[in-house]
Design a protein that fits this description.
The structure holds three protein chains of three kinds.
Chain A: H1 2-26, H2 29-55, E1 73-78, H3 84-101, H4 106-122
Helix pairs in contact in A: 1-2, 3-4
Chain B: H1 2-23, H2 36-69, H3 83-113, E1 122-129, E2 132-137, E3 143-145, E4 153-157, E5 162-168, E6 173-177, E7 182-186, E8 192-196, E9 202-208, E10 221-226, H4 228-242
Parallel strand pairs in B: 1-5, 4-10
Antiparallel strand pairs in B: 1-2, 2-3, 5-8, 6-7, 6-9, 9-10
Helix pairs in contact in B: 1-2, 2-3
Chain C: E1 9-13, H1 31-36, H2 41-70, H3 80-115, H4 123-141, H5 170-199, H6 212-244, H7 257-291, H8 298-312, H9 328-337, H10 339-353, H11 362-385, H12 387-393, H13 397-427, H14 433-460, H15 476-506, H16 544-555
Helix pairs in contact in C: 2-3, 2-4, 2-15, 3-4, 3-5, 3-7, 3-13, 4-5, 5-6, 6-7, 6-8, 7-8, 7-11, 7-13, 8-10, 10-11, 11-13, 11-14, 13-14, 14-15
Classes of the chains: A mainly alpha, B alpha+beta, C mainly alpha.
Amino acid sequence: MKAEWRGLGAFAAFIALLATIYWFMSYERAGSLLLATCAVSIVIFGAYLAGTSRRRAPLPEDRTDAVPEEGAGEVGVFAAASVWPPVIGLGAALAAYGLAFSGWLALPGMALALIGTVAAALR
Amino acid sequence: MHRAAARATAAAVAVGLVLVVTGCSSRVGMPDSASARGDEVIGLWQVLFWTAAALAALVLGLLALIVVRGREGGEGRQSDGHVPLELVYTGVPLLIVAAIFLIEVRTRDRVDADGSRGRPDVVVDATAFQWQWRFAYEGTDVQVLGSPGSQPELVLPVDQVTTIRLHSADVIHAFFVPGFLSKLDVIPGRDNRLDVRPTRVGTFLGHCAEFCGLDHARMNFTVRVVTAEDFEAWQRDQQAAAA
Amino acid sequence: MAARPAGGRRVTTLDVGRTIGPAAGQHGPRGLVAWLTTVDHKRIGILYCWTAFAFFCVGGFMASLMRAELAEPELQLLSTQAYNELFTMHGTVMMFLFAVPMGTGFANYLIPLHIGAPDMAFPRLNALSYWLFLGGGLVLLSGFLTSRGAADFGWTGYTPLSDAVRSPGPGGDLWATGLALTGIASTMSAINFVTTVTSLRAPGMTMFRLPIFVWTMLGTSVLVLLAFPVITANLAMLFLERNYGLHFFDPAFGGSPLLWQHLFWFFGHPEVYIVVLPFFGVVTEVLPVFARTRLFGYKAFVISTMAIAAYSISTWAHHMFTTGAVDLPFFTATTLIIAVPTGVKIFSWLATLWGGRLRLRTPMLFCLGFLVVFLIGGLTGPMLAAPMFDQHVHDTYFVVAHMHYVLLGSAMFAMFGGVYFWWPKMMGWRLGERAGLWHFWLTFVGFNLTFFPQHVLGMRGMPRRFADYPEGVGYDTAHLLSSIGAAVLVVSVLVFLGNVVASWRRREPAGDDPWEGSTLEWATTSPPPPHNFDWLPPVRSERPVYDWRRGQESSEP
């Protein structure tokens, strides 16, 4: 985890520096705001990773001497197949299509997408 | 078979580069400049082109060497890096781009210093609309309006500074004369000005260079650069015709 | 993963030397239904690649029509309106429905295999991102069916041209909503990639032992997460302005047309790196295997990848140098600086090849071809970074040449390199080498013939997005050459398709490790089982399979 949040920290610092330089060189609001919010987003992500890594011992994948046996055991349960992604996808596509013509036409698609999402979450 | 093909390609590329370079004269593909700014742009382009050509020759040469020397069979070199070399090939490109930056800034400073900013000899209001141009000369009633089938012609005096004020009646267009080697966008709600000092007499093609809808490709115009006396004579004729 | 679904598969990471099959409950759906409901990253990756390739053919067909039109002055084949729709949709399809999804397809297939994981962190989200991509793409293209036609304001959608007054009709709205969907798809994929790489690596697979392809996908994913929300917001604003009377971009009401450009390019410049970075990763995987060398400067590859990603966020307004509204020195500097890590990559690839024993098979040829075309495209980049030069060639064919050299150069050459390389792993059988040779040379010649003359065309002044051009002003020859090149490219793609069909007929088995690869995907069968690995070698470097093979050879008497 350490490499990840440190890299992100450097990234965020770099963007924040650029945002500052850009603002004072140009006083252009759109770009400065975009750069600033970009830096903040990276900090949020990096902070989460930093917090998580502090709370755990080094994982097998972060230790250079780890052997495959250490990762043995159940990784998790993965669904074999699911019909809900195509259903949600179809709903979203219908919604996008309908929205281009009129707000009302988007509703059936949105409903389908919502049904699919709820069904997928309940599984 | 692959090696022979690789050698043939390397040879073809080398020949091609030689042809490109010698066949295109010192301007290396750029149009003949007709403006003071254009002369500077061509100078900058020559620096950029030759730098790029040298780097290309280096990399392609190394690549050709690698292909020709690296015969198949057995293990290759198992190096996992060499920090001094890596520093060199990081540092040298850094120096090159720093040089390009400085040359660009100096070129632009020279162009800005030249051409009497704020004291133009002629001021033209160029209005772009879907899909034609109107050129109006400030301080006179002279106007040139294009129409489908009739390209508008902007007449300018040689060796004098003209400020072209750019106005858009609708969407974003751009005023582009390849012979002057520069362009500027025409943006609704924004006051853009292009200063140009033509350096030779002649007729030059102009284009709209920002996609503006259906007949974007039909918004061409011409710029006719004439001597100062001819310019005044032309203006007098136009004024008389407009009256 | 709360409740255990019926029919789910229990997946275990396995010990060296012991083979444990998947748990009971593998009676899943078969055939077409299996593909429609799959959540297996390998199948999703294959779906992505084939769908992206289909869109590539669609975009390529549009380009062929345009090149046929431009071969000679005077309109012959297409109306101006048709031409304008074609270049708009060509750009949109190629950027959003081909280039990025093709990289996503490779990533989907390879990332779990490269890190020794059984699947992605969120398999159903993965499937969903595919269906949203397909759906969004179809919504985008459905504009062609409407009476006013598809979007026709350029893939960059500049306002005020793209507003409801200047571009009425549903085509533009379908463009906005369809693109938003594909953007959501990409964002979901990025979330999946980052989480998977962060949490599902095999023991010993530290960050600095990851294959470079995985690093490039990490950089790409971070860029997607930062850039796509911006374009989605921009599209939403455009949609609201077109349909609900808002005035973000309308100067008559205090809005700014330039706001669209800032937001678009803040996304748009990282977007082009989102396109090329995965392909850099592909090339970095292929070259050492076929040169039989070790990657030169692993850390340099990682740092330059991350530097390119980071710098790309700061360069956006070099697309706006001719607006008169942009701080020129800032963007000149940031744009020039990004040439440095890119140059480091090129030199690192050369250094990887140096002293190699090259096996010039099709995957290697395509990657060498990539080096040549990306070099040319990469050299015109710093030229365009200089506003004095850019203000002459902006919005001309010079830029078209540059962008096709870097974007299509990487997407096409590295894509085919990767396709020929990983095809045996994905399918279990090889693609023909002889036809591959023809394919490569036709592509290389066709590509350069199409795009090299366009540099000259642009310098002479030929603008972009022109449905027609005046005769006899110096544009004619270059256009004709370019169109001939395009025809050669079409033939090259047909040769590829022919190769696929002929090879499928033969289906000569490829084996687990036909190329003597270095990374973990070559440690499993071709194609891999659903849970990817029955066995994992220990991970002690960035090339575990190479180490394992060496260990086996030296331990043999």
